[in-house]
Amino acid sequence: MNTTRDTTYLDWPFFEARHAELERALDAWAAQHLSDAHGADVDDACRALVAQLGQGGWLAHATGIDGQIDTRAICLMRETLARHNGLADFAFAMQGLGSGAIGLFGSAQNKARYLPEVASGKRIAAFALSEPQAGSDVAAMACAARRDGDEYVLDGEKTWISNGGIADFYVVFARTGEAPGARGISAFIVDADNPGLEIAERIAVIAPHPLARLRFKHCRVPVSQRLGEAGQGFKVAMATLDVFRTSVAAAALGFARRAFDEALRHATQRQMFGQTLADFQLTQAKLAQMATGIDACALLTYRAAWQRDQGRKVTKEAAMAKLTATETAQQVIDAAVQMFGGMGVVSDHPVERLYREIRALRIYEGASEVQQLIIARELLCEAADA
Q1: How much is the pLDDT for 372?
Q2: pLDDT band for position 239 (50/70/90)?
Q3: What DSSP designation does 134 have?
Q4: pLDDT tier at 1 (50, 70, 90 boundaries)?
Q5: By mean pLDDT, which of 48-52, 63-67, 105-109, 175-179 is the weakest?
Q6: What pLDDT sits at residue 272?
Q7: What's the pLDDT score for residue 2?
Q8: What's 342's DSSP letter?
Q9: Can you state the angle between helices 86-105 and 71-84, rounded to 10 degrees?
Q10: Could you tell me if 59 and 93 are in contact, meaning their C-beta atoms sit under 8 angstroms apart?
Q11: What is residue 140's predicted lDDT score, i.e. its pLDDT?
Q12: Active site residues
């Protein structure tokens, strides 16, 4: 990908000098080590990317191995990786999402057991929250964990689980019944080879990555594998998602930047009717809309990341960032496909891949409609407290 990047946004007051250095180092590494595409075996490609990212030292930023999670660093890294290779962004993000709860809530023993190997790329992590009838509505969770002495016994299903089928362990959320609804859920680390855990189905999606439905049948998990206290699972899930929901916005931003770079280069080179495509006012208007939307997304994304790193609540701001970035990136990428004409829908063309990559981001970790509900709820709470 030979483009001249505009990196002036790294000088924004949201960032410290170390963030700009990190982004530039990762961009240089990605240009050397990552290609646009990957082979047909997505499982193997994902394993290889996790190993590469671990060997490069990049995964340590996502795991909270030192007890800290730098949201701005994670967002910059996801943006950069997404710009280069969508599956590399996925591999990085899932290592963080699957282990972030351990970094935030795990015991010293669990942190020592799992985080170093996740950071080095030797273990693959996964986050198992969604169920067939409980996606956005976590309180509808049916997977249950029954206490039996020094163990819990898990029964139920999880679905749409990223890294499902290749993960070495799963952070699993199950109803333990301390209170009704979301207050009666606990979180557990379940090793992939734990008896009673099986991969019930592998799920194929338009932008291929490892995805599966999990089934638990009398799956015994030691109490020591619980994250936080019993009944705190919803808190564990939301704290983890608050970090990575903002980073979804950053990934969308990376996809949008790549699409814009491709479109701008094409528009200035494509000859039509004795001039370039970029000479047409319609093209100029579209490029202006794309660039403005990208900057608006970046401002919202890095405001939310900066605010979280200051220790402030970011529920509303993270939702605003994810909603705006994913919806805008879809528009930017669609405009890029249109600008390329027939080439834009040829399989494995960069903008065609981006078109498939972006669609899921408007759904996972809270669909756009759910983000709107979250934003409205927070606004109404603020108004009631005023």
Answers
A1: 96
A2: confident
A3: B
A4: very low
A5: 63-67
A6: 87
A7: 45
A8: G
A9: 160
A10: no
A11: 85
A12: 365
CB-CB neighbours of 205 under 10 Å: 12
The angle subtended at Cα 123 by Cα 130 and Cα 253, nearest 5°, is 60
> SS3 of 1, please?
coil
Q: Which pLDDT band holds residue 365 (cuts at 50, 70, 90)? A: confident
Give the integer Cα–Cα distance in Å for 221 and 81: 35
Rounded Cα–Cα distance for residues 376 and 68 (Å): 30
Q: Is the pTM of this model over 0.70?
A: yes
The bridge status of strand 169-175 relative to strand 185-191 is antiparallel
Whole-angstrom distance, CA of residue 168 vs CA of residue 166: 7
pLDDT digits (tens, 9 = 90+) for 338-348: 999 999 999 98
Residue 151: HSE in the Cβ half-sphere, 13 Å Cα cutoff: 9
Report the pLDDT value the prediction gives residue 66, as an integer from 0 to 100.
Answer: 65
The answer for residues whose C-beta is within 8 angstroms of residue 150's C-beta and 6 or more apart is 222, 223
* Pairing status of strand 144-148 against strand 151-162: antiparallel
**Mean per-residue pLDDT over the chain, rounded:** 93
- Average pLDDT, integer, range 42-59: 95
Q: How far is CA 49 from CA 94, 207, 244, 249, 364, in A?
A: 12, 16, 19, 21, 21
Q: Which of 56, 60, 49 is nearest to 29 (CA)?
A: 56
Amino acid at 215: R
Structure tokens at 13: 């007051």
- Alpha-carbon distances, residue 78 vs 153, 168, 287 (angstroms): 36, 22, 24
Whether residue 317 contacts residue 325, with contact meaning beta carbons closer than 8 Å, is answered with no
| In the chain, alpha helices (H) | 17-33, 42-55, 60-63, 71-84, 86-105, 108-119, 233-269, 281-309, 315-340, 350-361, 368-385
Quote the distance between the C-alpha of residue 85 and its chain's center: 14
Q: 109, exposed or middle or buried, with CB in 10 Å at 0-12, 13-18, 19+?
A: exposed
How much of the chain exceeds pLDDT 90, in percent?
83
In this structure, what token pair is assigned to residue 129? 């929250």
pLDDT band at 4 (very low <50, low <70, confident <90, very high): low
Element (DSSP H or E) covering residue 189? strand 185-191
**Whole-angstrom Cα distance, residue 356 to residue 348?**
10
